């Protein structure tokens, strides 16, 4: 008798995430990617890892500290076991990351006449020029922090790079221990990390800020002899605890928690091997209370997220070392000058970003702001860009006298500060700003425009899988839909009224809303597919999402597989389901596409004996999304749009360039291309298709 809750049938959530980050790292090794893009993937890998430690590892460490030792409910690993396996895998990945940089990417940079140098490698005249630069530009900004009986170990900022300096006081005649002193110097965040020497014959010579400071560190400690300089970086627990029940003003509560985030408990210590003082390492571990497994001795410089700024600076100069530029196209029928409301009134409009432009979404809100017939705009905002045209349009709408209601999610992780700012700006402009429901994040993506035309009320709705962010819409793949269907307009009205006022949970015509019904509706659809498989033998489910962790959904998919339903999953990140287990998941295939663009769409397709049902959603099949967030799952009702979505899914299932397949042990490998099979990079193919449609429209 097969027990579907057997821990061996599941991947641990955290280890599955590390497997995803390994796929990101593989892009830095892919010979098809240009050099600057490879460096950017190293930065993405590091940035991902920072967040992983600040949230996921921090949470596990907290569990261990309070003595919680219960196994998690899928793979059955205790917090201690998870931390041990995370450390083992992650040390391997970080070593691979730096091996990639040193052995593969540095030589390629040198061929492009870029050299990363140490100060000790410079000649006398170069060092003299650098010393002048240090004295004039760096020294005035530095603050040495002595550590002694009167000055305890300083509270160092999360993710900051620091130099621990061991000094000897030659005036003391006592034993050597009493002659030794320790100080900390923090790298100023406002200074450029890479310092460039004057070019010589086209050579670009770069030095690291911390290496320069370390070389001239003695200038900060006159009268003392520098014995060692150790470069280190700490990562802190950045998870926030919001006491919503007791918070009279959620805005202020969030602002207070943001201040604390900078000073959470240390969860990781990175030290640079070059110049590492073992005594200082022991000292830092004691002071920061960091376990040895969370210490990373780095054979290279710390914090490779610096390659984000390097990429931004060099990309305009090195066009041959970045991806060929791709331009988002306007969708078919949107460029003929017809007003957007008239177009949506005629038919549903489907957008696939970034292959198709995000501009119609901005235009939709902007036109609503200026249209004298528009009475009200209601919108949810989770993450927006720094100079958001969406925010500008909403403010303008309020100033034009329209009823503007904006739900700003203040608890959007690592965007809290940004969202607090926008909430205040919107309120100043006269918008009615709400913050959602207690203990639930509002992650849904929906806009409702109410318009009065010739005495009749019209509702126009935009629903999507991604954020109202014009910048990430250029690099995230997302789908969205404009519709004027009456029932969906009524659903949207009821949805916003439920969030903003006191009313019972409404019954929706078409929308499915978490935490109330999405899981139940998905389970019902899978059950239905099982019945069709048993009766007609044609059961088929295709689902595309960022992550799959919900055990109830996974067990139901296992049940469907055992019944013979063919299941194709495209899961970019975490996937706790294991495919190909005999008698359990034989009929399930799992693939992950990691490439130039970040796959972010959530699509759920059910064959239903030919009565195909297709849904788009803001929600992944994760327990947190289904239990703790306000999410929307919405159907694709237009037959033409259904066909478009299916073509996208089908192409993803055929990708043999950037797709990796998961095996029954939870391991991933590139999808093998069969002899004679066409090369299919789904992302590039979708750009080509968008170009072709645009050409055909001309």
TrEMBL record:
Its EC number is 2.7.4.1. Residues 126-310 form the Polyphosphate kinase middle domain. Residues 340-504, 511-683 form the Polyphosphate kinase C-terminal domain. Residues 10-116 form the Polyphosphate kinase N-terminal domain. It is an enzyme of class 2 (transferase). Belongs to the polyphosphate kinase 1 (PPK1) family. This is Polyphosphate kinase. It comes from Planococcus maitriensis.
């Amino acid at each position: 008798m097969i027990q579907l809750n057997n821990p061996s049938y599941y991947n641990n959530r955290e280890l599955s995430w590390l497997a995803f980050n390994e796929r990101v790292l593989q892009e830095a090794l892919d010979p098809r990617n240009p050099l600057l893009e490879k460096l950017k993937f190293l930065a993405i890998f590091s940035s991902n890892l920072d967040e992983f430690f600040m949230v996921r590892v921090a949470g596990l460490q907290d569990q261990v500290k309070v003595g919680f030792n219960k196994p998690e409910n899928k793979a059955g690993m205790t917090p201690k076991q998870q931390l041990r396996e995370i450390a083992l895998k992650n040390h391997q990945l970080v070593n691979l990351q730096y091996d990639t940089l040193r052995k593969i990417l540095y030589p390629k940079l040198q061929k492009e006449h870029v050299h990363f140098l140490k100060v000790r490698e410079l000649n006398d005249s170069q060092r003299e020029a650098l010393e002048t630069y240090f004295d004039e530009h760096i020294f005035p900004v530095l603050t040495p922090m002595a550590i002694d009986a009167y000055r305890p170990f300083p509270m160092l900022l999360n993710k900051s790079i620091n130099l621990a300096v061991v000094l000897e006081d030659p005036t003391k005649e006592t034993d050597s221990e009493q002659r030794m002193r320790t100080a900390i110097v923090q790298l100023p965040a406002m200074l450029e990390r890479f310092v460039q020497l004057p070019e010589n014959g086209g050579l670009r010579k770069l030095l690291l800020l911390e290496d320069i400071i370390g070389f001239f560190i003695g200038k900060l400690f006159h009268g003392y002899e520098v014995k060692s300089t150790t470069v280190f970086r700490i990562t802190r627990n950045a998870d926030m605890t919001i006491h919503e029940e007791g918070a009279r003003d959620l805005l202020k509560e969030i602002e207070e928690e943001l201040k604390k985030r900078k000073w959470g408990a240390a969860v990781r210590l990175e030290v640079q091997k070059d110049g590492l003082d073992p005594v200082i390492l022991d000292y830092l571990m004691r002071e920061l209370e960091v376990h040895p497994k969370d210490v990373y001795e780095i054979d290279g410089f710390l914090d490779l997220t610096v390659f984000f700024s390097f990429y931004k600076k060099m990309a305009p100069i090195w066009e041959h070392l970045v991806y060929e530029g791709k331009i988002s196209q306007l969708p078919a029928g949107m460029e003929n000058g017809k007003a957007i409301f008239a177009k949506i009134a005629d038919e549903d409009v489907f957008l696939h970003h970034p292959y198709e432009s995000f501009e119609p979404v901005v235009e939709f809100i902007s036109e609503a702001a200026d249209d004298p017939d528009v009475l009200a705009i209601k919108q949810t905002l989770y993450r927006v860009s720094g100079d958001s045209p969406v925010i500008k349009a909403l403010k303008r709408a309020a100033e034009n006298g329209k009823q503007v209601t904006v739900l700003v999610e203040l608890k959007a992780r690592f965007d809290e500060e940004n969202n607090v700012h926008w909430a205040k700006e919107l309120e100043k402009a006269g918008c009615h700003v709400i913050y959602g429901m207690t203990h639930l994040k509002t992650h849904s993506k929906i806009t409702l425009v109410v318009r009065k035309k010739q005495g009749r009320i019209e509702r126009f709705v935009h629903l999507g899988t991604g954020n109202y962010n014009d910048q990430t819409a250029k690099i995230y793949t997302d789908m969205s839909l404009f519709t004027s269907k009456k029932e969906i307009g009524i659903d949207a009205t009821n949805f916003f009224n439920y969030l903003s006022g006191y009313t019972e949970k409404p019954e929706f015509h078409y929308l499915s809303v978490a935490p109330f019904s999405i899981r139940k509706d998905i389970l019902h659809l899978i059950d239905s597919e099982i019945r069709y498989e048993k009766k007609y033998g044609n059961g088929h489910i295709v689902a595309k999402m960022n992550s799959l962790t919900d055990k109830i959904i996974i067990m139901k998919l296992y049940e469907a597989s055992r019944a013979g339903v063919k299941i194709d999953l495209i899961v970019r990140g975490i996937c706790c389901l294991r495919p190909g287990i005999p008698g359990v998941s034989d009929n399930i295939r799992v693939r992950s596409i990691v490439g130039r663009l970040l796959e972010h769409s959530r699509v759920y397709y059910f064959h239903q004996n030919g009565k195909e049902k297709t849904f788009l959603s803001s929600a992944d099949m994760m327990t947190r999304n289904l239990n703790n967030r306000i999410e929307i799952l919405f159907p694709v009702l237009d037959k033409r749009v259904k066909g478009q979505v299916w073509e996208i899914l089908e192409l993803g299932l055929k990708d043999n360039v950037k797709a990796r397949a998961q095996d029954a042990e939870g391991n991933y490998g590139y999808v093998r291309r069969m002899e004679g099979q066409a090369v299919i990079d789904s992302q590039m193919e979708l750009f080509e298709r968008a170009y072709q449609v645009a050409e055909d429209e001309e």
